[in-house]
Design a protein that fits this description.
Length: about 220
């Protein structure tokens, strides 16, 4: 399938009753992180930037990706067989992802949390310290199977770091659910499991305190 066909097919299957008035193209970029992608709109032009890894994936998955981006940029909701395929592709990416960065301290804490709460059932992802971010305390990136913890926690109590890891490990375990055109990362099940961390209410408070020592901030953790 040619690139133009992939785009027009994506549009047609997603919005069967609409005319595709866009002039669109796909650009592969070495600057994006593995399996990341974005779309930019200028007038009636759409430019889909895909990381290089997408060159090797099948067209049906790629159509799902393009549809996912079309939904994001149009603010519309919708699901197709292709977006389902794309979701499960992303959910399974961790198996194919190289583990190149496992920081010693984070790995030791990960292993302890894995044993205590997950029966050692989780495969260790990449584990790294991020920037000194106060807005993003920790993240889990499905595309690279990486947990990143803000460097403001480097000297924090181990239980605080473990709690952050636990939250991100729940993301790795539960993945995300898509329904109604919405992606849910913090499901009811997620929130229930989160409370099972030892001393949970106290942990939330400790976390806030530690973070506020690095100036006031919200309890915001972004994923993806
Ligand atoms: Zn989260």
């Amino acid at each position: 399938m040619l690139q133009e066909e992939i785009i027009s097919e994506s549009f047609k299957r997603l919005f069967p009753n609409e005319n595709n008035g866009y002039e669109a193209r796909i650009k592969y970029s070495g600057k994006l992180k593995p399996y990341n992608a974005n779309v930019r709109k200028a007038g009636n032009k759409l430019i889909f930037s895909l990381s290089r890894e997408w060159q090797k994936t099948g067209n049906e998955i790629k159509i799902g990706l393009i549809q996912d981006l079309l939904l994001k940029i149009s603010g519309k909701k919708g699901r197709t067989a292709n977006t389902e395929l794309y979701d499960s592709f992303i959910k399974n990416l961790h198996m194919a992802t190289a583990k190149t960065e496992q920081e010693e301290k984070l790995l030791a804490l990960f292993n302890a949390v894995n044993e205590k709460y997950f029966n050692n059932s989780l495969e260790a992802p990449n584990l790294r310290w991020g920037m000194q971010s106060k807005a993003r305390l920790a993240t889990y990136d499905y595309h690279t199977d990486t947990i990143t913890v803000s460097s403001i926690f480097r000297e924090a109590e181990e239980s605080v770091i473990s709690y952050l890891l636990y939250h991100e490990m729940l993301h790795k375990k539960l993945k995300f659910s898509s329904g109604n055109g919405r992606t849910i990362h913090h499901s009811i099940q997620f929130r229930e499991l989160e409370k099972q961390f030892e001393n949970h209410p106290h942990m939330e408070e400790k976390l806030r305190k530690h973070a506020s020592r690095h100036r006031r901030m919200g309890w915001l953790r972004n994923i993806l």
